[in-house]
Amino acid sequence: MSADRPAPPGGAVDPVAALRRIAFLLERRLADTYRIKAYRGAAATLLPLGAEHVAARARAGTLRELPGIGAKTASIVEEFVTTGVPAYLSELEKTAGPLVEGGAEYAAALRGDLHSHSDWSDGGSPIEEMAMTAMELGHEYLVLTDHSPRLTVANGLSSARLAQQLEVVDAVNGHLGGDDFRLLKGIEVDILDDGSLDQTDTMLERLDVVVASVHSKLAMEAAAMTRRMVAAVRQPRTNVLGHCTGRLVKGNRGIRKQSTFDAEAVFAACAENEVAVEINSRPERSDPPDELIEVALEAGCLFSIDSDAHAPGQLDFLQYGAERAQRLGVPLERIVTTWPRERLLGWASR
Ligand SMILES: [Zn+2]
Ligand SMILES: [Zn+2]
Question: Which of 2, 7, 189, 247 sits at a 20 to 30 Å CA gap from 198?
């Protein structure tokens, strides 16, 4: 990320940018997804029409004849066309500063994000929208990590759908062009009960980065959970151990206790296999807890500060993880997401 934070996609120069900016600012505050979708949907409708056509419709009062444009979004566009600054956007811009106090130095050192979701699984936005926002945030890369097949509640991707997604990732990179930013191929693969991974080896081999996470039977007895996690960490394609305790500390999904396991054994396996322990930045996860980050530090682990974004604005959550890592004294050198992209890819493909 650029050092002169905050640098989210600001300075709306047209109605489409204004609508996207509103969505971004709402998403980073974890606003209701349905409400946000109206803004992203309206932006998608207006984008291909061109600024002049949109302005003409705004002046004629015919925006609402378009699909996906409602009263609120139409009035925002009309206001943009007449004044250049919709009042709602100016109001939201007041919240555009840092999400958290502290951690600015670490946030500025981060180059990308290894964990994000699109609407192919349980995210709310298309792949290209996630990629564009990551690029606007100054990331060098974003790894797209939609869920694996057995996580049916999250519309996990079968091998066939994942194969299809890899082609889309190539196409998105083709469109975005340039070397400054790459969308990377990944997965958040479920750790099954026996520690095996919920995707074929052939597919895992085709990915740049593999995040492995536990999503089921979180209350498993500690010895079995330890065996399960150690086995997953030892899988040759595992690069990152995602949100390792599964706890939820707040938010609309309620509170969930952290799962119990022998942290020293699991983190020793991570250190030995060069698997990064994820510092999951989602405010409702904040996982691992401080005391486990300290155990992982002691064990000599690598770390990865990830957003686990399910919407573009949530890519900014990295600030929360950066604050924690800086406060807990995690050396920057041990955070793989501070590494240049080529080094990161070398590590992930070892
Ligand atoms: Zn997860
Ligand atoms: Zn995730």
Answer: 247
User: 68 CA distance to ligand 1 centroid (A)?
Assistant: 31
* Ligand 1 midpoint to CA 104 (Å): 26
Residue pLDDT, tens place only, 223-261: 999 999 999 999 999 999 999 999 999 988 889 999 999
Q: From ligand 2's centre to the CA of 217, what distance in Å? A: 17
CA distances from 261 to 197, 229, 258 (A): 19, 8, 9
Q: Which whole number is the average pLDDT over 288-306?
A: 98
Short-list 225, 237, 264, CA closest to 347: 237
Centre of ligand 1 from the C-alpha of residue 121, in Å: 11
- Beta-carbon neighbour count of residue 184 at 10 Å? 23
Ligand 1 centroid vs 80 CA: distance in angstroms?
A: 39
Strands 240-241 vs 112-113: parallel, antiparallel or unpaired: unpaired
Query: Residues, the chain, total?
Result: 350
Ligand 1 mean position to 261 CA, how many Å?
18
Please indicate, yes or no, whether the overall pTM of this predicted structure exceeds 0.90.
yes
DSSP secondary structure letters along 219-245? T--HHHHHHHHHHHHHSTT--EE-STT
62, 39 in Cβ contact below 8 A?
no
